[in-house]
Amino acid sequence: MSTSSILICGGAGYIGSHMAQWLAERGHTVTVLDNLSTGHRGAVRWGRLIEADLMDPAGLKRAFSGQRFDAVMHFCARSLVGESVAEPYPYYSNNVTGTLNLLEAMRDHDVSQIVFSSTAAVFGNPISEAIDEEHPRSPINPYGASKLMAERFLADAAHAYGLRSVTLRYFNAAGALPEHGIGEAHACETHLIPNVLRAALGQGPALKVFGNDYDTADGTCVRDYVHVQDLAQAHALALGFMAREAGAHTFNLGNAQGFSVQEVIATAASVTGVQIPYDVAPRRAGDPARLVASSEKARRVLGWTPQWTALEPIIESAWRWHRDPPSWSPHHPHAHAHAPGQIA
């Protein structure tokens, strides 16, 4: 793939910052657009930063008027399942209206390619052991519903305006690149692996396991964890695919194997050498018992080959990050916590 100028919306966040590193290392010109509500200025180490918000069409117009982009990668979204159930309006506003504002800005400035960050939450409760792209989409929380609406935008825009898009539905992003100074740095952390590792460090609130009465082998939820660098690889492959293929396309991204909450805790204990305490809490609304991907289509069509296929090295990379976070991370001992906002 030839080098390109890429706008990464949400590039100051977790997955977006890893994407910026991947692209810049391979010679692409990177520009990050982020409102820094949950992203971090210190994570923007590759390319320049435009402070703007997808909810501000005028700011988007200025961003697109200042430089020509070959493609956009869209990571901006609110993404906390439980919060979306309790407060659905901000999810539809940010994830639906914000995406529409971005697509209109792209159309107005003749940018015709986008890679969209979606989620396994569009599927709801699975009816098959491994979830492929044809699985029924019946989201059970506003977060998943908002992402599914944005997916529909892309399909309609392909038909109406010739927009080329690749939607990548992540299962559970995990891991870090501590050697590059980037990792999962949410001030309001809800993801299992970082919370387990913070518990191992004696940081943050007490670890809670939400439900141990699911219909799984040990009663705890099962999830498919995919390393953030493997996600970045898939996004880069999607750029090349869009250059060849018109239309709107979707791919599921996961390791095609599931690990329970209890298995994650046990593996983290092995990696850290610390017995990790936890309390069992009631189930969270909107949490399916099992979410495991079939990524056969991404492997076959995109040529995607995940490099991080075992749970232990994924957790080990995250452990090295959490053990020694940079000064800009909210997990640094001297950092000040930020209020939760738009998750990038």
TrEMBL record:
Gene3D superfamilies reported in the protein's UniProt record: NAD(P)-binding Rossmann-like Domain, UDP-galactose 4-epimerase, domain 1
Keyword Metal-binding assigned: no
Annotated signal peptide: none
Domain of life per record: Bacteria
Biochemical pathway: Carbohydrate metabolism; galactose metabolism
Keywords tagged on the record: Carbohydrate metabolism, Isomerase, NAD
EC number: 5.1.3.2
Domain NAD(P)-binding: 7-310
Major enzyme class: isomerase
Catalytic activity: UDP-alpha-D-glucose = UDP-alpha-D-galactose
Gene Ontology molecular-function annotations: UDP-glucose 4-epimerase activity
Keyword match Cell division: no
Cofactor entry: NAD(+)
InterPro entries referenced in this protein's UniProt entry, alphabetically: NAD(P)-bd_dom, NAD(P)-bd_dom_sf, UDP_G4E
Quaternary structure (record): Homodimer.
UniProt record similarity statement: Belongs to the NAD(P)-dependent epimerase/dehydratase family.
NCBIfam families with a match to the protein in the record: galE (TIGR01179)
Name this polypeptide is given: UDP-glucose 4-epimerase
Species whose genome carries this gene: Stenotrophomonas bentonitica
Biological classification of the source: Bacteria, Pseudomonadati, Pseudomonadota, Gammaproteobacteria, Lysobacterales
Gene: galE
